[in-house]
Amino acid sequence: MKRIYLLKINQHRETCYIGKMDPRELVKVAVKVEMGEKQDAQRPLNKKRVQDISKYVAEEGILPNTLTIATKDNSFEIKQMEGASNVYYFEFPTEESEFARYQDKIDIMDGQHRLYSFIDDICKLGSDIPYEIGFTIYDKPTLTQRRKIFVSCNEKQEKVSGNLLMWFKIQLDMATAEEKDFYSLVQKLSEEYPLRGHIIMSAEKIKNGVKAKEVMAAMRQAKIHNMRAGSQTLNEEQKVKAICTYLSAWEKFASFKFANSKLKESGPAIKMAGLKFMLLLLPTIWERALNTRSIFDEDFVRSTLNDLATHLGVERERFFVCDEHKYKFRDRTVTDDFAEQCRGILSSIDAGDFNPLG
């Protein structure tokens, strides 16, 4: 057995201790939880997230946030060190024969995904590599206390938005090559009309603005990066020009402004659902320009959108606000289905009922 040293912390009527140790050892005495299993005061354990953390740690990743754990009984009795007023310790096993006596003796109240990423059959970190993790430990808390602690660790902490995290990844050069490409494209669009002043690049406040990360996701889904002219894929400058031309045509077609229109007047056109819908149609309308050897300008796009509105039987100014279309932008799947329907209509405009086979 060895000693794990602790410092005592008092908060109102609650007492806890902080310490550090090798998580590959700590996980051996943690309560075993099946992946996805419901727990009293914890979210279900997500296997993919655990595996992702394990991979991250093996690639020299660090885990600066402490775990929050608790003893279940007196197996890990916390004692004060003689001659030290605020230093405490508990005895911890070192031999495999000792570990058997301490299985399932530590509850994980916060940080279970981090700790369980060090389970033997998941951990990718070499056993010869020193690695420690900090923890806060409570001594035999009741279920009510554990739930109170869980709320403090989760609901009372402001979550960092995915949009801001993406911005940090770009600034710290942690983004993938694909993320960098999409982010660069979105950043340039945020500086050009008609999306200037409408895209939230980090955490700035923009009324009815759309988040850069969500615009990136919409572009990925629309396969914007596959747009070609002849045998060449469009470069970034050409994509910016094509997207700006295309969205400017939408503004004139449906009588709204991305950055200035009021939500009541423009409906979902200025929200992410509307922008995503437009982006999903872009490659199809681009292909139409290629197939008909037409210049891809605002007039061409507006003419194509007029044809679409005619087929749908809707007035162009009311495309996003008419009763028939309002519900199509309230759910992601419904919006995707509507975009697929419109792509089908756009693909058939020039062909009509013509069958090349006769």
Helix content: 40-55%
Number of strands: 11
Major sheet: arrangement of strands: 4-5-1-2-7-3-6
Structural class computed from helices and strand pairing: alpha+beta
* Low-confidence runs: none
Features:
single chain, 358 residues, alpha+beta, seven-stranded mixed beta sheet, 14 helices, 11 strands, 14% strand, elongated
Walkthrough of the structure:
The protein has 358 residues and is of the alpha+beta class. It is built from 14 helices and 11 strands. It has helices at residues 23-26, 47-58, 96-99, 112-116, 143-153, 162-171, 177-189, 212-222, 236-254, 263-266, 272-291, 298-312, 323-326, 332-348, and strands spanning 2-11, 14-21, 67-71, 79-80, 87-92, 106-110, 133-138, 199-200, 210-211, 228-229, 232-233. It has a 7-stranded mixed sheet with strand order 4-5-1-2-7-3-6. A two-stranded parallel ribbon has the order 8-9. Strand 4 (79-80) and strand 5 (87-92) form a beta hairpin. The longest helix is centred in the last third of the chain and has 20 residues, at 272-291. The chain is elongated, with a radius of gyration of 28 Å. It starts with a strand and ends in a 10-residue tail after the last helix.
